[in-house]
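Hi F.,

I've been meaning to write this up properly since the lab meeting, where we talked about keeping a consistent format for the predictions we share between groups. The idea is simple: the sequence comes first, exactly as it goes in, then the structure tokens exactly as they come out, then a line or two of notes. No screenshots and no reformatting. I'm using this chain as the first example so we have something concrete to point to.
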Amino acid sequence: MKVRYFALLREATHKREEEWTRPAPDVRTLVNDLVALYGEPFAKWVMKDGDLYGFTAILLDGKDVRGRGGLDCSLEGVAEVDIFPPLAGG
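Output, unedited:
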């Protein structure tokens, strides 16, 4: 599946997107694997106390995981994962 990063996560990963080939049955496993790979610069924008951080948004094929099981949402059949850190604006 393709994992795409937005805003500050592009700085943390040094990528806009990547093809993810490691097995990940659910969003939690994927996020934990990404945190292990990219470390604190990634983790600080995505996770807090084992849950999604603030207004972080994760979309599976364009649909938000919130209200669909959150981090426990299955990745079976998912082609694209978009991860957005909390955004500030004015």
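Notes:
The longest strand covers residues 80-84.
The two ends are 34 Å apart (CA to CA).

If this format works for you, I'll send the rest the same way.

G.
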